[in-house]
Write a structure and sequence with these properties.
alpha+beta; eight-stranded mixed beta sheet; five-stranded mixed beta sheet; binds adenosine-5'-diphosphate; binds magnesium ion
Length: 594
């Protein structure tokens, strides 16, 4: 068979289509290029309309600077740009596009119509092209700004058209792009009309909170923390969600580096690590952060379709992003406060029964407990001695200086403890509190590479199923790291001769089996850190339950440990460990103050 054909240079149109295919992959790319151009043109209002997910029509209208009549044709020429003049400009680039390929590419794979007028020009210009071939260039009356109409994308590349995603998929990808653009440009009013319906609208009043409200709703908008940090070469600004508005995936992690929405594993990791201990497992925060990094430190020569950037000094970037968020998160005591309702006529508030409500969970900045000893503490009764056996329940691991002052007043429903602390009343869930203490301690031990084991004599013998045996073989290291000692007992049996001290006496046999089951469902290659996190989270099962008796002394030591936690206010599953009511709230309730 003759497989060889003679070598020939491709005709310019084919070359153009191939090149265009690299810039314009789908309707999403057209919208991105056109809207970025509109932003670069200094617009304050941009409307995007799509039909059939952008396949049959994309319209982008802006009120920006417009294109001079004499440059319209040039704008559609390959590598024609007003944004850079030479390679040297690349490191200083502040506009979104600069390669000068978008318009020529779009035009070569669709039917394009452009109407544009500069501010001071008397008339506008209309330009029409099909498949890159000019059909019209004429004077028209037009408002200031630019409108692009892109019809029948890939009409001349049937193969590409066939592989197009569904209009629905494309439409939602475009919406998500527009959300990101709107978030990062709060001074621009965006409107998106999809299949004839308004799908997104922002006010453009330069208030980022308003944009967040428009895009994500009240729940998120009311639970934001402000971040602002200037490291010189890196400046960060924006909002992050309080832990109570986390999500099960990363879709709400928005950040913009030098104006671009990107996905960076490095930045995601620094954000997620900062939230560590504030969020439950597999929960991700909401963020809307702009990060400006010195142009010299970021590789801006990015492919138009790739949303990745290269950093010159990734470690520093990690540390700084992490540090800025951590500082904000740690400053706030994220305890859901009991809100006193607004003063109402006395009769009505009597009817309402004045029950304590745990919502809405809004936190206010408060100072951390002061380490001063209180007079009431001096006369308190001796706490039982710490022994290995009760290490978990009475693990007083820190010094008398650091002891937070609080007064335990009693317990209700055998579950919730009433605690007075400075100017507030706390209701503490003993189960959630204990979970938190065990979890943080295990995580801390892991970090410090400490192993605390409690030897059992005799140990307990377990017969394992084949799945359990495999899970144990796969993750044996991890068990050892956590403090287990496991011996072969012959056949399918193992003997557990030591368990992590933190769960000793709390049903360790059942816990061990549950842990094995959990690990059996995981992939062998799951990262050790992730596994350990699971172990720690599961260990919370060993925590004392509500309704389980706890002496005052035991609870007191639990409270002390709780306050020594990095974040005492949420259990590893994200539930509050305590709710609080301030003196002020009480006084409002009793109408001492209005
Ligand atoms: P680039 O954006 O990389 O410069 P494009 O092909 O996207 O290249 O656009 C070419 C040029 O056309 C831009 O540099 C700009 O001068 C002009 N232009 C494109 N869109 C607009 C617009 N909406 N308003 C004003 N000028 C525009
Ligand atoms: Mg462009």
């Amino acid at each position: 068979m003759d497989v060889r054909k003679e070598i020939r240079v491709l005709d310019p149109q084919t070359v153009g289509k191939i090149a265009a295919g690299e810039v314009i992959e789908r309707p999403l790319s057209v919208v991105k290029e056109l809207v970025e151009n509109a932003i670069d043109a200094g617009s304050t209002a941009i409307t995007v309309e799509i039909r059939d997910g952008g396949i049959s029509l994309i319209r982008v209208t802006d009120n920006g600077c417009g294109i001079p009549a004499g440059e319209v044709r040039l704008a559609f020429t390959e590598h024609a740009t007003s944004k850079i003049r030479s390679l040297d400009d690349l490191s200083r680039i502040s506009s979104l596009g600069f390669r000068g390929e978008a318009l020529s590419s779009i035009a070569s794979v669709s039917r394009v119509e452009l109407i544009t007028k500069e501010k001071d020009a008397l008339t506008g210009v209309r330009y029409v092209a099909e498949g890159g071939k000019e059909l019209a260039l004429e004077e028209v009356g037009a408002p200031q700004g630019t409108t692009f109409l892109v019809r029948d994308l890939f009409y001349n590349i049937p193969a590409r058209r066939k592989f197009m995603k569904s209009a629905r998929t494309e439409g939602s990808a475009i919406l998500s792009l527009m959300e990101h653009l709107a978030l990062s440009h709060d001074g621009i009013s965006f409107q998106v009309i999809s299949e004839g319906r308004s799908a997104l609208q922002t006010g453009g009043n330069s208030n980022p909170k308003d944009v967040i409200y428009h895009l994500y709703g009240r729940d998120i908008a009311e639970n934001l923390l402000y971040v602002e940090k200037d490291y010189g070469h890196l400046v960060m600004r924006g909002f992050i969600g309080k832990p109570n508005v986390s999500r099960g995936n990363r879709n709400f992690e928005n950040y913009f580096v030098n104006g671009r929405f990107i996905k960076s594993p490095l930045i995601s990791k620094s954000i997620e690590d900062a939230y560590h201990s504030f969020l439950m497992l597999h929960q991700y925060p909401f963020t809307a952060l702009t990060i400006e990094i010195d142009g010299q430190e970021v590789d801006v020569n990015v492919h138009p379709q790739k949303m990745e950037l290269k950093f010159q000094d990734p470690e520093t970037i990690y540390e700084e992003v992490y540090g800025a968020l951590r500082q904000v998160l740690e400053q706030k005591e994220l305890i859901p406060e009991v809100q006193a309702p607004a003063p109402a006529p006395v009769k009505e508030s009597l009817k309402e029964g004045s029950s304590i409500q745990a919502e809405p969970p809004i936190s206010k900045p408060q100072s951390r407990p002061q380490p001063l000893p209180e007079p009431f503490e001096t006369g308190r009764k001796e706490l039982p001695k710490i022994t290995k056996e009760n290490q978990l329940r009475l693990n007083l691991e820190y010094e008398e200086e650091t002891k937070p002052k609080f007064k335990i007043l009693g317990q209700v429903f055998r579950t919730y403890w009433i605690v007075e602390q400075e100017e507030r009343l706390l209701l503490v869930d003993q189960h959630a509190a204990h979970e938190k203490v065990i979890f943080e301690r295990l995580m801390q031990r892991k970090r410090q590479k400490e192993v605390y084991s409690q030897t059992l004599s005799p140990g307990f013998v377990l017969t394992l199923s084949p799945t359990e045996q495999t899970a144990l073989a796969d993750h044996k290291e991890l068990f050892l790291e956590a403090g287990y000692e496991i011996e072969d007992f012959g056949g399918n049996s193992v003997e557990i001769t030591a368990v992590p001290a933190d769960i000793y006496g709390l049903g360790e046999k059942q816990y061990f089996l549950e842990l094995l089951d959990e690990l059996a469902t995981l992939h062998k290659k799951t990262e050790t850190d992730e596994l350990y996190l699971r172990i720690a989270t599961m260990s919370c099962k060993a925590a004392i339950k509500g309704n389980q008796d706890l002496s005052v002394a035991e609870f007191e030591s639990l409270m002390e440990q709780l306050f020594a936690c990095e974040n005492p206010y949420q259990c590893p599953h994200g539930r509050p460990t305590m709710i609080s009511m301030t003196r002020y709230d009480l006084e409002r309730k009793f109408k001492r103050i209005v």
